[in-house]
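Module 6 notes. Inverse folding takes a fixed backbone as the condition and produces residue identities as the prediction. Think of it as a translation problem where the source language is geometry and the target language is the twenty amino acids. Below is one complete input and output pair. Work through it position by position during the lab.
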């Protein structure tokens, strides 16, 4: 079976198995290297749905067949690497679909570079504050699926706090939108006799039956980017399955769209530089500074500083 040829017949986007392309997609920003068998560039959500249907139909005969979504490839853990099919969203699924300055939100596709979105939001003195250090290179799909945080996370928190909804293609090959639901809206979803209804029923049963246990398991840290964020799904009043997809690295579905909350930019900025004779004292400095709620805190040893100044 020629998988590449089969997929070309079901998607509008491009498919490549050229060796130079496969080598390019065998790396991200980590030390890992995994060469895919195929790279697909979907033109739209319909292409992603077709890919999921294709893999589901052939999975029993080819158990190793899988889909791995990729945006800019700046992940440092090997997240977008696969020896099967890589789905690159940056070629076509890269649009800023809506920017509402009054209500302070954007609707984006996963392949949109962060820098392009920020260029537009800054025109309205708005920003998406949980960007990572790679903000000039990364894309929104990676930010959402890694639950990214960065230099402003001390004040603003992480990506999970700014995702209002996500559109995901799930294992049944259909696209669904997930957002915060009231109890009444949740009950309506659970009455649906389809795959989406099944997802809501089973997830609600899981988090409701183990509510106290799940809450106790929540890490007591200021930033936690490890999925799955099951403790954020249900608070007793609202049910939000978008939380489970943020930070899941595409393992639960492939993102096609996200609505992200923005915050106003601060009119003034300042910076304090402190030089230490002994780097081992940095812990005491952190303890002294944090009560003043800095927007960011960065520390460097002498070797890193010299490299930065070159």
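Target side of the pair, the amino acids:
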């Amino acid at each position: 079976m020629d998988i590449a040829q089969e997929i070309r017949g079901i998607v509008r986007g491009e498919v490549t198995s050229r060796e130079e392309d496969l080598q390019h997609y065998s790396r991200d920003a980590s030390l890992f290297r995994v060469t895919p068998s195929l790279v697909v560039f979907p033109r739209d959500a319909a292409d992603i749905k077709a890919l999921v249907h294709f893999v589901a139909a052939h999975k029993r005969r080819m158990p190793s067949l899988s889909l791995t979504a990729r945006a800019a490839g700046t992940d440092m853990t090997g997240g977008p690497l696969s020896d099967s099919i890589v789905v690159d969203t940056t070629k076509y699924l890269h649009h800023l679909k809506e920017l509402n300055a009054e209500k302070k939100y954007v609707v984006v596709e996963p392949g949109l570079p962060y820098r392009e979105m920020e260029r537009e939001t800054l025109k309205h003195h708005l920003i998406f504050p949980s960007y990572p250090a790679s903000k000039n290179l990364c894309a929104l799909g990676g930010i959402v699926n890694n639950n990214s945080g960065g230099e402003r996370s001390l004040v603003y928190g992480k990506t999970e706090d700014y995702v209002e909804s996500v559109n995901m293609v799930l294992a049944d090959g259909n696209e669904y939108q997930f957002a915060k639901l009231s109890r009444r809206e949740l009950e309506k979803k659970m009455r649906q006799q389809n795959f989406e209804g099944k997802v809501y029923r089973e997830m609600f049963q899981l988090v409701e039956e183990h509510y106290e246990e799940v809450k106790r398991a929540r890490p007591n840290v200021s930033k936690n980017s490890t999925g799955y964020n099951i403790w954020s799904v249900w608070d007793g009043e609202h049910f939000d399955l978008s939380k489970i997809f943020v930070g899941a690295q595409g393992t639960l579905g492939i993102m096609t769209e996200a609505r992200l909350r923005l915050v106003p930019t601060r009119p003034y900025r300042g910076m304090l530089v402190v030089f230490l004779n002994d780097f081992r004292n940095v812990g005491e400095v952190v303890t002294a500074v944090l009560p003043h709620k800095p927007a960011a805190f960065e520390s460097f040893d002498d070797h890193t500083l010299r490299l930065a100044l070159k």
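Reference fact for the lab report: The two ends are 54 Å apart (CA to CA).
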